[in-house]
Task: inverse folding
């Protein structure tokens, strides 16, 4: 099974694809970050374990499994924020990428790390 994930890249993302939308094929069980990088969209990331939030994206439509992330909260899901380094699609998706700052704000608003220490 392969899903189509549309990556909506903001103007200030620094990916080389800024301001564009890119469709990426993501295999069942594959992480969105790596599928994107294999397709030439170099999304930001750091730990690649679902811990630091550097790779955060906002889910515009569809469904992502986040169970491989080391630190992911129900409040993140409620806010439609996901960690793309450890997110696998459960359907076709649209994702606004480069949402690190939004993720820090969301975590801080719930007094959760790492937003709490960075805000
Ligand atoms: S790169 Fe650290 S949480 Fe994804």
Result:
């Amino acid at each position: 099974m392969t899903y189509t994930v549309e990556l909506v890249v903001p103007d200030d993302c620094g990916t080389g694809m800024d301001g564009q939308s890119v469709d990426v094929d993501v295999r069942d069980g594959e992480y969105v970050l790596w599928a994107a990088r294999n397709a030439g969209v170099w999304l930001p990331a750091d730990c690649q374990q679902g811990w630091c939030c550097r790779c955060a994206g906002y889910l515009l439509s569809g469904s992502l499994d986040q169970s491989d992330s080391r630190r992911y909260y129900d409040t993140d899901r409620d806010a439609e924020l996901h960690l793309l380094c450890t997110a696998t699609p459960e359907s076709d998706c649209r994702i606004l990428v480069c949402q690190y700052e939004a993720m820090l704000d969301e975590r801080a608003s719930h007094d959760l790390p790492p937003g709490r220490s960075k805000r």
Observations:
- The mean pLDDT is 95.
- Helices lie at 32-38, 74-78, 100-109, 115-118.
- The first helix runs from residue 32 to 38.
- The pocket of FE2/S2 (inorganic) cluster is lined by residues 45-48, 50-55, 83, 85 (CB under 6 Å).
